[in-house]
Each structure stands twice: as structure tokens, then as C-alpha cells.
Amino acid sequence: MRFLIAILLFPILGFAQDKYPKQEGVDVLNYSVSLVLNDSTDRIMGKVDVKYQAKETVKALLLDLFNEYEGKGMLVQGVSCHGQPLTYKHENNQISIELTTQMKSEKGALITVLYEGVPQDGLIISKNKFGDRTFFGDNWPNRAHHWFPCIDHPSEKATVDFKVTAPSHYSVIANGLQTGKTTTENGFKTTWFASKYALPTKVMVIGVAKFSISNCGDSTKIPQYAYVYPQEEENGFQDYCSAIEILEWFEQKIAPYPYDKLAHVQSKTRYGGMENASCIFYHENSIDGKKGSEYLFAHEIAHQWFGNSASEDDWHHVWLSEGFATYLTEVYKQETKGDSAFLAGMEAAGRRVFSYQKKYPDSKIIDTNFLDLNRLLSPMVYQKAAWMLHTLRAIVGDKIFWEGVRNYYKQYRYGNATSDLFQEEMEKVCHFSLDSFFDTWLHQSGVPEVKVKYKYKKKKKQLSVKLSQDKNHWFVVPVTFGYKPEIKEVMDGPKMKMVIKDARPPKNGLGFDWEHVILME
Questions:
Q1: What percent of the chain has a predicted confidence (pLDDT) above 90?
Q2: Which sign, positive or negative, has the C-alpha torsion 142, 368, 416, 256?
């Protein structure tokens, strides 16, 4: 997700991070979402079949669904299990459904929720820049429950299928593959999509609009499509279909693409782009006919591996999604445009961090104090986390870094992970502790400030170097010198001394951090 500064202006009505009431013993397996949309009103009609497993000790199934209030929100019409009405309460934006013994099974049980209402958020019903009516899901961080009942937390992944009935002049896109389409006599059309891979609710979406659609061709047997507004068909197809090469690069760098198709969709997302699994929604001004959004495409495509397939277990680990996507975009830039483009991109990322820290000096990559989940989307989890990965790469070495990243993805694809689990995968390949590195970079504000002092003894040809950081505020950083680049050490503490024998005199200083692998002002 490429965030916009304006995002901080949007309050989220949802659950505070780390305080979400997780349901031990409940595992949702599938959501089957049926929606009826129309042009005469913004009111939607919905039916969701929730397939789940529950242990014997579970007394109730809790599903998040925004209550109807002042004309917006959802009103539950009924809850049943195989046609038999169930006892439930819908209050405080949650449905509590009483479970009987027969509804607790290792094979899974099925509950149906009927509801209707005007989405207060999540499913954005509006007009695009050409004045045409559109419907777009936009769920991050916990806005899916504004338009369908679910466990709206990134740790609860499930497969999903959508059945969307809408006026026949609309086209529909959703997660997974299209499995059917029928047209009725009343001028409506029903379209089915199904994803066989478990997804977090943040990337379960539909898009309904007047689209021009192009099959961009197959990339390593993965079909890619462009869904653009008809008014920008030519430029839209040209821009969006250029992403084929980007996906191929990520497959070679990380692993095979994790889904069955990839659709690039012009949309009304509030973000620069939203990485919905297998159907990325880009902001509606992302088309210029000159491939000007290439790096936006790369960022959102990276999320298909990191964030969608290997998902953060909780909101405050979002850097595992955004930091990876930001850094991988710069690496893509490096390998396709050269080192100078990469360095310029990383320096620009650093400036974003410095500017943000001046306003919020206590900000960290992981901060569990935020009550507004949108506050998590900052240069801390994008640009500072990208620099953290770059510094880690310098410490462990290029080969080991990419081996660790690939192993981490392989281990947690289609699942969930935390920062500690990523650390574990990196330690398995580098064979030394990264505790101090992850602790100082993830849980500490600011950036490294390293002071370097040196003395050269001409007769002994000996160079003594002292490095220091604030004893209460230090980072683990690699130590490299431009005058003698073969010297590489790691500073794992507030002070460090080095004695280099048979050294030549440093005529122009030591050139500390000559490889530009540390985020420093």
C-alpha cells in the first residue's frame, strides 16, 4: 500500500491495536459473500455463509459487523444454521451468535447471516473522476466489517468467494478467479469469484464499475488483466499491462507468484494503491500513458508475497508488509535502473524519515500505543523499515540476506508471522544472534548517530579507531570504511574500538559508511 499523507486525517472506527478480542478455539475457514447492489440507492443486501471450526469450549461465535446508526451501517435480518434460526445479539459493532454442541465440529460448521444497510465505510460507493458510479472495497486496516460480517483481524485468514448481483452495465472484479456469470431479465447480472487461498480480511474486496478490460497476456502461466475506466482505455492498458515484467522480476527474486491471476484495477481507493490479493486497486490518477506509476506497481505487486500471502499477525507488525514492499521496490529499481537510481531512492526515503521524526520524535517502527490504527501508516513502517532491511543486508551479507528472506516467505506463505519469526528465519541462515539489531531498530525512536575518532601512528603504520553512540540510544550498525573497504565489522553497543595494522595513512578521512548502508542524517 502506498499511503497518502491525507490518510492521517481519516479516523477509523474499530478496535484498538493489541486489544482486539481474539477468539481462542475459533478458526474461520471460508466466507461466502453474496451482495446485491443497485443504482437507485446505496443500500446493499447481503448474505454471508461463514464456515468455521470451533472447539467444544466455545460458547459463541463473534463476528464483526458495523451497526446501523443514523442511516448508515448494517442491520441484521437473521442468523441461521442450515435453515434453523439461531439466537444472536448485534451490538457494539459485533454479532454474538450462540453455538450449540452440533455447531462445534473439527470438520467445520456453517452459519448464515442475512443483513442489509448503507456501508458507512469499507465498501466505497461513489462516483469516479468521470462522474460514473462505482463500488470499491477498501478495507485496510479493519474496515471489511463495515460491509460484510467477518472476524476483521489480520491473524484470522480464510478463503473467500463473492457472488455479486448488480445492474448489467457494470463489470465486476474480485479476489481469485471468475467462476461464473449470468444475466437476468430485469437488467441485472450476477458474477461469481472464488479464491482458494486463505486471505486476511484487509485484502478481501470487490470492484464494480464500468470497466474496459484487457487480457495482458500470460506471465509464467499467471494471467494478468487491466481493468480501467473506458475513458482512459488506451493509456490504461498500456500502463497497467507493463506490470507483467515487474511480476516476473519478483518471481525470480523471491518465489513463484502465490495466486491464480493478477488484475490491475483503476479505482477509488483512498490510498496511492491497495494491494488486494490478486486484484490490486490503484488510485484513479495512476494512468498517464508513460508508465509513470511503475514503482507504485512494483510496491503493490511486492505485497502479493509480503502482506497478502505472508501476512503480519497483528496490526503493529505492518512493517513486515510495508517495509518489505518499500525496500523491494528500491531493489527492483536498482536491478532495472542501476545503483544511482537505487541510492537516490534510498536517500529520498531517508528524508521522509527525518522529516517525520522532526514532527514525531518518539515514533518507532513498532509502536503498540496507537489507538488509531491509521497512525501506523507512517514513514516508520515504510521508509525506516526499508532502511532497517538494507542495514540488515549489509550486516549478514547479500547472499545470506536473500536466503533468509526467501526462507521466511516460504515458511509463512498463506499464513501469519511476527517480527520475532522473521528474526528467527534470518538467524537460521546467518548463525548468530540478531536480538540487539531487531530490538534497537524496531522498538527505538530516532536514527543512528555515530561519532568516529581515529589516530594514525606513522612509524607503526597503525590506525586506531574509536566509534561511539549515545549510551542510552544506540543502534546496531555495520562498520565500513571507504579508504580500506575490505574492513567490515559490526558495532553492537554504544562504543567500539578497532586497531588496524599495516594501514596506510588516511589522507581524506576514513570515509565511514562509504557503502551508504546506515540511515544517518
A1: 84
A2: positive
Give 383-415 as a 3 state SS string. Answer: HHHHHHHHHHHHHHCHHHHHHHHHHHHHHHCCE
**Under a CB-based contact definition with an 8 Å cutoff, are residues 303 and 297 in contact?**
no
DSSP SS3 for 345: helix
Confidence of residue 10 (pLDDT cuts 50, 70, 90): very low
Buried b (16+ CB within 10 A) or exposed e, 164-187: bbbeeebbbbbbbbeeeeeeeeee
Euclidean distance between CA atoms 440 and 359, whole angstroms: 21
Q: What is the pLDDT of residues 284-330, one digit of tens each?
A: 999 999 999 999 999 999 999 999 999 999 999 999 999 999 999 99
CATH superfamily of 23-304: tricorn interacting facor f3 domain (2.60.40.1730)
CB 383 within 8 A of CB 326: yes
CA nearest neighbour of 276 among 301, 294, 254: 301
The one-character DSSP state at 66 is P
Tell me the pLDDT tens digit for each residue of 357-386: 999 999 999 998 887 888 899 999 999 999
Give the Cα separation of 476 and 435 in Å (integer): 10
Residue 442 has pLDDT above 80, yes or no: yes
Cell of 253: 527474486
Q: 428-440: b or e for each residue (b if 16 or more CB lie within 10 Å)?
A: ebbeeebeebbeb
With residues binned 3-state (H G I as helix, E B as strand, rest as coil), the percentages for the chain, rounded to 5, are 30, 35, 40
| Vertex 322 angle, CA 290 and 253, to 5° | 70
Cell of 81: 444454521
User: How does DSSP classify residue 173?
Assistant: E
pLDDT digits (tens, 9 = 90+) for 92-127: 999 999 998 878 877 789 999 999 999 999 999 999
Contacts of 310 (CB under 8 A, 6+ apart): 320, 408, 409, 412, 413, 414, 415, 416, 417
106 Cβ contact partners less than 8 Å away, ≥ 6 residues apart? 53
- Hey, which residues does 51 pair with through a beta bridge? 30, 110
pTM of this prediction? 0.94
Residue whose C-alpha is closest to residue 203's, from 287, 265, 255:
265
Question: What do you get for the CA distance between the two ends of the chain, in Å?
Answer: 26
Cβ–Cβ under 8 Å, residues 487 and 504: no
Average pLDDT value for residue range 150-173: 98
**Domain made up of 311-442: CATH architecture:** Orthogonal Bundle (1.10)
Nearest to 284 by CA among 136, 468, 497, 459: 136
